[in-house]
Amino acid sequence: MNHLCFIFLLASVAYGYNPEDFIHAFGATNYGFWGATEACKNGSYAYGFQLKIESEHGAFTDDTSVNAIKLFCRDPSGVDTGEVTSSVMSFGSWSTRRTCQDGSYVRGYMLKSDGTSSDLTAANALRMWCSGPSGEELIEPGNKWGGWLDRADCGGDKVICGLMTLVQESQGSFNDDTALNDVRFLCCDPPAVV
Question: How many domains is the chain built from?
């Protein structure tokens, strides 16, 4: 078992989460450290997201792209219960909020990842899908680098209720920063119908 998977299993158990309740699309870069799992308040679920993105700087300047993912949470009655993030890097600014329709929650995702450029940018964009019959797609296009990893969805009727992110800390002035490298989303049993 590779050591990153082992560390993830230890961190999940230490925080009281079953590792099988996380979804993950393999193939992202793996620089940095996994942050703590952050979950929506009990009885609430993620209905949207926002990315902290550093815009492209051009040649001869280090780029990072995605620096953080924020989830927006609400309960089954539609009351906003706050937001959650895991590890966050300091570059960039927050994008537009992307949200599901009322009564719907996010249940799947695809991450766009760059692991081959000379200036690695790691995570570059995010797509998420909403629950319900429409299966609405939410997309934050981010930056141009990389390719889309496979889609990962919560099993059965479960929906996303939290996340943990793999973020590389600042590498200093003359080194390549990647910021957010990877994400695992926590899935929870669906809300009761109101």
Answer: 1
